[in-house]
Amino acid sequence: MPRTQKPTAGRSRRSGRRSPLASVALIAIGLLFTGGAYAMFSTGTASAATDTASQQTVSEGEKLFAANCATCHGLSAEGTGAGPSLIGVGAASVDFQVGTGRMPMQANGPQAIVKPVQFTEEQTAALAAYVASLAPGPAIPAQELLDAQGDASAGAELFRINCAMCHNVAGAGGALTEGKYAPALEGVTPQHIYEAMVTGPQNMPVFNDMNISPEDKRDIITYLKYVENNPSPGGFALGSLGPVSEGLFLWIFGLGAIVALTVWITAKSN
User: Which residues does the annotation place in the binding site for heme c?
Assistant: First the structure.
């Protein structure tokens, strides 16, 4: 009777089943590959959508610029005899000038004055995006720098050193030469205060990040908003115009009272 040959150990290993760990590894690799491909596709799609939206905003801003600003600033914002070049002024300058109604100007004068805003927020953003696309310049500040939650004491010191000589220590404003003036800062939004510091509109110097850091600008805004939201503890503030208004008050009422008292005493003695 023929003998049946038993399978050897080597043959058993070669014809045996695949290890469970190999299946787990294959599944993990498949999941990683699928997830990575999906992430790359999603990121690329989102980036393309953002770029398309940004380009659309710039295009809208270019149209608005050609219709409303090119007369003075030139079709390519290169400037004319009626207006300066805007190449390199950045989005912050456009947002400040247009967002406060200073631009477009109604007539030439010593400086542009605040008036009702003529563009919507979306249109202002589009104009700012177009000018910013022409050349690098100061950008619109981040919201965390505008929360007025900094150090009011440090901001007060910085404001007295850098700003009070024109704007008054309480931000009440003041007169300059040749019909120009430093405007009052009460009611001005934190964003526009910050943009004014980094762009230097009109006669104001530019305070870039090398002069006053973003955190210091936040402290200055904090101080101004503190002054605005807290009444004078000493009573009637006389417009916060300092020695001019105080001296005038004493001259009219103090000296007037002395003169009136002198006349009354003289009349009684007769």
Answer: 69, 72-73, 163, 166-167
